[in-house]
Write a structure and sequence with these properties.
The complex is a heterodimer of chains A (553) and B (213). Chain A is mainly alpha-helical and 553 residues long. Chain A has 19 helices and 6 strands. In chain A, the strands form 3 sheets. Chain A has a two-stranded antiparallel sheet. In chain B, the strands form 2 sheets. Chain B has a 3-stranded antiparallel β-sheet with strand order 3-5-4. Chain B has a two-stranded antiparallel ribbon with strand order 1-2. In chain B, a hairpin with a 2-residue loop joins β1 and β2.
């Protein structure tokens, strides 16, 4: 089979398997998040953590729980990373320096998984399992919980009950993430991903040199790293490392896992609001963006554009032999479109247009299809914006899913839309003004600038992937990127919850002939247009200095 | 339990003091929740994956260690630095940005227009062509580029084929015998359509060494 046929078949297989699980998983998640029954284990859990599972929370209560839980997560993870030398199973490694630990703790609590350290030489098993992997689960659950709170708001009438954060947290972890992670981790082990508590092993190699092989609970972390759209690699090379991603089949499974929940949540959304057509419209728009970015990136990567790819005969710098350009590009666009940030190849060495597409995919605000939960609420925010734009055109009060979009709602939506672009542009501006940044860049000219833009885009949108040539271990980068991640996560979350509260307190307006239908192809296209317009107007000047200049030179 | 009932929506703006109290109370609940979830997700889950993985798949979960004469010499998944200088009579691996050091797995991260990268690609092309006595245009892309992991255990079938005659000449094997060994260590696409075909360099070299005795 030719490379093109095989590549197209790979994409077809991915889409096909996602289509197969779309309904069952989407509806299962809707069931989990609307059920009134508690299992025995959960009831016991609520008693231990001191929560009344029947208690209801308003937007304020829900937000306080999200913030309280996240702050505690941040403190505990920071303590684990700084103090790992006194923890068991730490492979004799010292604690992280404070600025790196702070950056890493923020990174994992915000579901970003930006990594300024190399796992194999920095972290022991306790920090990986009980620190990072736990955040891979719970930060994903926080994202889903917030999205569901917003969805619930559309179904409420003059009733600001958004659910119970603690119940959502426990259920999402125990009923959704854990079973899926368990099964997929075992599949990955079967394909050769490492899950071993063997000590570091120094082997004398065939030619008489030495290699130190390190092991650990890799597969268990790999599964939740993809499933929760986290992306933090056990090893520095992330999913390019054969211990994390041993074969081309495991590679496809990992791409499937990182798309799985964001895609199926659109079904959950449709089911919960009682209009599955709306779920399909959201999914359609997300898929269009993903497909468009994938096409652009594939043309450039497989076509081997750019100086180094032309010199080598293919864009294979930074790519694994067994994965090649097709599977690497498919991974790159899926990981940047889901705010996962896992990488199976070096994005820094992608062709100018391929790397630019990965960057633009994040600049869309992580909605193609976005991270777990974050993609759904991010998209719904844009949908409200699109309704507003359409309302302006025809001179009607905008409505979305039976709720009036008034000044209050638009204020939250506007602030949300501005939050991460502002963080990116301010971050890049400050970093470029620092004289030390030139030394931190791993590349010269426009590409060095692209590395800085990519870093802040990735942090503020909670993606976590990098143009890895940049050295980000200086206290300046550790702290500014941590700030971008923290604000890029929690400012939007608080705005979403305030919006949810405001929507839930409203009554519903009946659908009339004058209501703009929001489940149509036309509306999905309008939303895509708004996404492209916002990203384009915000980032075009920045992109021109980086990837566009590179592609044209 | 700090929840507001649905019948009494918050209408007045709560004071800073009550915000702080509420946040502290939520933090305390959060700490307890985090500890419980850490036990389940951070200890039980990885240990169960380990235990079931070991039972179901045995040493597949251990990094697929490779032996030579009963001694472990590496992992089937981790490449080793075979090159023209260190292994003139064996198959060569791809260039690596980290020198095949599993403690520093990394790509070069050089940009697509980086002049140094373009120069080293051209240099590698000339070197590989000279070492193997072929035309520079015959050198495949993987032979002149560094991988993403820095420990890529594979090369393309094209790069392996190009090295057959040199390896045969250096050993006591015929070209046909070496070609057979290459074929034995060549894997097609996963399931026939996933990824690219590949040749396992470490195990191929071990086979060459074993057959050459």
């Amino acid at each position: 089979m030719g490379a093109t046929a095989a590549g197209l078949l790979t994409i077809l297989a991915l889409v096909g398997v996602l289509a197969l699980v779309y309904r069952p998983l989407g509806d299962y998640m809707a069931g989990v998040l609307t059920s009134t029954r508690h299992s025995k284990v959960e009831t016991l859990g609520y008693r231990v953590i001191g929560v009344d599972p029947e208690g209801r929370q308003s937007a304020r209560g829900y937000a306080l729980s999200v913030v309280g839980f996240s702050v505690v997560s941040l403190v505990v993870l920071f303590a684990i990373l700084v103090g790992q030398s006194v923890l068991p199973f730490s492979r004799g490694l010292p604690g992280m320096p404070w600025d790196m630990a702070l950056n890493t703790a923020v990174s994992f609590v915000t579901n970003t998984n930006w990594q300024s350290y190399a796992g194999e030489s920095t972290l022991g098993w306790t920090a990986q399992m009980a620190g990072l992997a736990v955040q891979n689960f719970v930060s994903a659950a926080v994202g889903i919980a917030v999205a569901i709170a917003l969805v619930r708001a559309f179904t409420r009438r003059r009733n600001d009950d958004l659910g119970n954060f603690w119940v959502d947290l426990v259920r999402i972890n125990l009923r959704i993430l854990l079973p899926l992670a368990l099964v997929s981790a075992l599949v990955l082990v079967g394909l050769g991903a490492v899950q071993s508590f063997a000590p570091d092993r120094v082997v004398d190699t065939v030619l008489g040199g030495q290699q130190t092989l390190t092991f650990g609970p890799v597969a268990s972390q790999e599964a939740i790293k993809e499933l929760g759209t986290n992306g933090g690699g056990f090893f520095n090379a992330n999913s390019a490392h054969p211990f994390e991603n041993p074969t081309a089949l495991s590679n496809l499974i990992e791409i499937f896992l990182l798309l799985l929940i964001p895609v199926c949540l659109t079904r959950t959304f449709g089911t919960m609001i009682g209009s599955r057509k709306h779920g399909y419209a959201v999914l359609g728009a997300m898929t269009f963006l993903w497909g468009a970015m994938l096409t652009v990136a594939l043309v450039s990567e497989v076509g081997g554009h750019g100086d180094s790819a032309r010199a080598a005969g293919a864009a294979m710098e930074g790519k694994e032999t067994q994965l090649g350009t097709w599977a690497s590009t498919l991974f790159a666009i899926s990981t940047t479109g889901t705010s996962t940030g896992a990488v199976n190849s070096a994005h820094d060495s992608f062709t100018p247009v391929g790397g630019g597409a990965a960057m633009l995919n994040m600049m869309f605000g992580e909605v193609s299809p976005g991270g777990v939960g974050a993609g759904l609420y991010g998209f719904l925010i844009v949908a409200v914006l699109a309704v507003f734009v359409a309302g302006l055109m025809v001179g009607r009060t905008p409505e979305f899913l039976g709720k009036k979009i008034g000044t209050t709602e638009m204020t939250y939506v506007a602030l949300y839309t501005l939050a991460s672009p502002a963080l990116v542009l301010i971050g890049v501006g400050v970093a470029i003004a620092m004289p030390s940044s030139a030394d931190a860049m791993g590349n010269v000219g426009g590409h060095g600038f692209s590395e800085v833009v990519y870093a802040y885009t990735s942090a503020a949108n909670n993606n976590g992937s990098a143009f890895g040539g940049i050295t980000v271990t200086s206290t300046f980068f550790q702290l500014t990127l941590a700030a971008a991640m923290l604000l890029g996560r929690f400012v939007p979350i608080l705005l979403v919850l305030r919006l949810a509260g405001s929507l839930a307190r409203q009554g519903t307006v009946p659908t009339t002939a004058g209501t703009l239908p929001t489940h149509t192809v036309q509306f999905a296209a309008l939303t895509v247009g708004v996404i492209a317009l916002v990203a384009g107007l915000t980032f075009f000047p920045t992109l021109s200095l980086g990837p566009i200049a590179e592609a044209l030179s | 339990m700090t929840t507001t009932t649905s019948s009494t929506p918050v209408t007045t703006r709560p004071s800073v003091a009550s915000l702080a109290t509420d946040l502290l109370r939520q933090g305390w609940t959060g700490l307890r929740a985090l500890l419980v979830l850490t036990v389940v997700l951070g200890v039980v889950y990885p240990v169960v994956v380990w235990a079931v993985g070991q039972l179901a798949f045995g040493d597949r979960a251990d990094g697929q260690l490779v032996q030579q004469d009963g001694t472990v010499v590496g992992s089937a998944l981790i490449g080793q630095p075979f090159d023209a200088e260190t292994a003139p009579g064996l198959f060569h691996s791809r260039p690596s940005a980290g020198g095949y050091d599993p403690l520093a797995t990394a790509p070069s991260n050089l940009g697509p227009s980086d002049p140094d990268l373009v120069r080293s690609i051209e240099q590698r092309r000339a070197d590989v062509a000279r070492t193997n006595g072929v035309a520079p245009s015959a050198v495949p892309p993987d032979a002149v580029t560094a991988s993403g992991s820095g420990v890529d255990p594979y090369v393309s079938p094209a790069y392996a084929a190009l090295q057959v005659e040199r390896v045969a000449e250096a050993s006591d094997l015929t070209v046909g015998e070496v070609r057979t060994l290459v074929a034995e260590h060549t894997h097609g696409r996963s399931l026939g359509f996933l990824g690219d075909p590949k040749v396992d360099v470490l195990q191929l070299n071990l086979a060459v060494l074993a057959a050459g005795r």
